[in-house]
Write a structure and sequence with these properties.
The complex is a heterodimer of chains A (about 400) and B (about 230). Chain A folds into two domains: about 40 residues, no CATH class; about 325 residues, Cytochrome-c3 Hydrogenase, chain B. In chain A, helix 4 runs antiparallel to helix 5, helix 5 packs antiparallel against helix 6 and helix 7 packs antiparallel against helix 8. Chain A starts with 18 loop residues before the first helix and ends with a helix. In chain A, the strands form three sheets. Chain A has a three-stranded antiparallel β-sheet with strand order 1-2-3. Chain A is about 45% helix and about 10% strand. With about 400 residues, chain A is of the alpha+beta class. The longest helix of chain B has 12 residues. In chain B, the strands form three sheets. A five-stranded mixed β-sheet of chain B has the order 1-2-5-4-3. Helices cover about 20% and strands about 20% of the residues of chain B. In chain B, strand 8 and strand 9 form a beta hairpin. Chain B is α/β, with parallel strands linked by helices. Chain B has one domain: Beta Polymerase, domain 2 (2-Layer Sandwich). Chain B has six helices and nine strands, in the order αβαααβαββββαβββ. In chain B, about 45% of the residues are buried. Classes of the chains: A alpha+beta (about 400), B alpha/beta (about 230). At the A-B interface, helix 5, strand 6, strand 7 and strand 8 of A face helix 2, helix 4, strand 3, strand 4 and helix 6 of B.
Chain lengths: ~400, ~230
């Protein structure tokens, strides 16, 4: 929009006559633009973001409605990656379903394995040996660091900072190497199984992990220097996409999304499972340090702080892990007595819930997956309304979605 | 404050909430129409399908406090012993007892669960459907609720007849129900009355059938894409 060029004659009727009318007309625009705004007709613009867009972390499509630079509406369209996980769960045996759990949140496959295994174990009444529980907790926390590292790196990338991404992947690579030694896979592990874990940890693995933690703690400070307290990054994320705590609760947000709004709820502490009750750790919550409580920076920083808490937990786990079997004796063709149960665990992205109904045979009657990304994303239209178009990317990134999980 | 499902039922009855039928133990919760409320009208239907299995003792080692409350309930109808296998389970049923409610009163029960000072289930974690069997007369609608202030969870179940699978939306009470109900609607053919945006969410807009129904037939072709 330039002031040169022909301007159409202003419409006679609604033209403001008094200073008061003028204020009403020009809304929030600065006074210098007033005169020009009065005689230009505006029209909402629909911008299609995705499904192929680098900042949507997969194949999410968001239909944005923009009034100039201001977003007036956002409509997410899902389903591009729907692979019928729940239907498959009703058609294969309990153990056969496990590899499918790797694939919904492929960045934290250990936690997915764990959530599903715990749900089946609950309905089947299986107890896990002590060492198995420790190994499970170690894998879940290590996977949390890997997942948050990716969230940290790609969030910088979304905002326009490329270097932190490379730093994050440097450490993530080490974690993937460690996982590869445990189960042979870098991403889709299927390591935590019904009854325990697939195999005991290799010799010397815990020492190696301990060495990695020493290195990682030093690097953690680098992330903050690079990104967290970087002035430009703070400017882009503080006071953007504010999610008040009562709204976060009403919309069923969980994980860093909920804690970023200052609600101290963490399934690991509040409804403990595995060996979490024996561990000493803090639940990180947003404090509105750089802007308003519940803004993008708060959500981002909860993840960064959680990485350090996970390191703390891992050190305690390495110290305390007992000897013994890692898995209960579970038959390959497991028959689960008739029953129904729900288990929610703290995934890196929030509460991953599995609702398993068994009819007393080898195959589940219903296998419901409650993906945290799906629920956290449902508040997106609320968060986007009234923000600037350039902030849309910052807001989507701060939700930290994995499309494999929203669509399942 | 009410923490277990049994305490929640007690509290709901004490304050006179309509539509609370009772508590289902985990084994009952896995069955369609466990109380015989929707059975086809033949002879005088028994009020509850009760077939106590001999030898199944109440579970001494319940895993969770929720499971403990179900220890007094009747034992599993189809336990591991009935199947004659070496299942690792000791004595079932394991899992969560379900709060069984009338579909017509679901919205009111949810409202009470959220607002009553003793209950305070602030958060709706999940809404989903379930088709128990091909020939079952009902579809189940399952709600998972979480109380942040009391650190408690409860599972709610309402059965709707397959011939008219309609139920009131939970959206005005819990906005979180928005997408969950859209998903349950497309997957099971449930109708959530009063939902603000009842479009498909994961499936294509013109998808035929409800994939999570047990009688669903996989399409052989979709817009020229072969399905086999």
């Amino acid at each position: 929009m330039t002031e040169t060029g022909t301007r159409p004659a202003p419409p006679p009727a609604p033209r403001p006559s008094t200073e008061e009318d003028l204020d009403r007309w020009s809304g929030e625009l600065r006074s210098g633009e007033r005169e020009f705004v009065l005689d230009v007709k505006t029209q909402d613009l629909e911008v299609n973001m995705g499904p192929q867009h680098p900042s949507t972390h997969g194949v999410l499509r968001v239909l944005l409605r923009a009034d100039g630079e201001i977003v007036t509406g956002a409509q997410p369209h899902l389903g591009y990656l729907h692979r019928c996980a729940e239907k498959i769960g009703e058609n294969v045996e309990f153990l056969q379903y496990l590899p499918y759990t790797d694939r919904y949140d492929y960045l934290s496959a250990m936690n997915n394995n764990l959530g599903y295994s715990m749900a089946v174990e609950k309905v089947a009444g299986i107890e896990i040996p002590e060492r198995g529980q420790y190994v499970r907790t170690i894998c879940a926390e290590l996977n949390r660091i890997a997942s948050h590292l990716l969230a940290f790196g790609t969030y910088g990338l979304d905002i326009g900072a490329i270097t932190p991404f490379l730093y994050a992947f440097r450490e993530r690579e080490e974690i993937l190497h460690l996982f590869e030694k445990v189960c042979g896979a870098r991403l889709t592990y299927s390591y935590i199984r019904i009854g325990g874990v697939f195999n005991d940890l290799p010799d010397g693995w815990l020492e190696e992990l301990s060495g990695f933690l020493d290195v990682f703690e030093e690097k953690w400070q680098e992330y903050n220097d690079l990104l967290s307290f970087n002035h430009i990054f703070v400017q882009r994320t503080a006071n953007v996409g504010i999610l008040p705590p009562e709204k976060a609760i009403a919309w069923g947000c969980t994980g860093p999304m909920l804690r970023g709004s200052g609600v101290g709820w963490d399934v690991r502490r509040d409804e403990p499972y595995l060996v979490y009750p024996r561990l000493d750790f803090q639940v990180c919550v947003g404090r509105g340090e750089k802007g308003t409580l519940g803004d993008c920076w708060d959500r981002y920083f909860v993840r960064v702080e959680e990485m350090r808490e996970s390191v703390k937990m891992l050190r305690q786990l390495i110290r305390d892990i007992p000897d013994g079997p890692v898995s209960a004796d579970v038959p390959r063709a497991l028959r689960v007595p008739a029953g129904a149960g729900y288990v929610g665990i703290e995934n890196p992205r929030g509460e991953l819930g599995h609702y398993v109904v068994s009819e007393g045979g080898k195959v589940a009657r219903r296998c419901r997956v409650r993906g945290p990304s799906f629920c956290n994303l449902s508040i997106l239209p609320e968060l986007m309304g009234g923000t600037m178009l350039a902030d849309a990317v910052a807001i989507i990134g701060s939700v930290d979605i994995v499309i494999g999980e929203t669509d399942r | 404050m009410a923490k277990t499902a049994a305490e929640v039922v007690e509290r709901l009855r004490a304050i006179g909430t309509p539509g609370v039928i009772g508590l289902l133990d985990p084994a009952q919760a896995a069955e369609p129409d466990p109380l015989g409320r929707h059975a086809p009208a033949k002879a005088v239907a028994p009020p509850a399908v009760e077939k106590p299995t001999a030898g199944a003792k109440p579970d001494a080692e319940a895993k969770t406090p929720e499971a403990e409350s179900s220890a007094e309930e009747k034992p599993s109808e189809k336990g591991p012993s009935a199947e004659g296998t070496k299942a690792p389970a000791k004595a079932g049923p394991f899992g969560d007892p379900h709060l069984y409610v009338e579909p017509a009163h679901v919205a009111a029960v949810l409202q009470t669960l959220r607002d009553d000072a003793e209950l305070r289930f602030e958060m709706l974690i999940d809404v989903t459907g379930i088709d128990y069997k091909k020939d079952a007369p009902v579809l189940g609608v399952i709600y998972q609720l979480l109380s942040l202030s009391h650190r408690a969870r409860v599972t709610l179940r309402a059965d709707v007849p397959k011939v008219d699978p309609a139920i009131d939306t939970a959206f005005p009470v819990y906005p979180a129900a928005d997408w969950h109900e859209r998903e349950a609607a497309e997957m099971f053919g449930l109708v959530f009355r009063g939902h603000p945006d009842p479009r498909n969410i994961l499936l294509a807009d013109d998808w035929v059938g409800h994939p999570l129904r047990k009688d669903y037939e996989f399409p052989v072709e979709y817009h020229g894409i072969s399905g086999v």
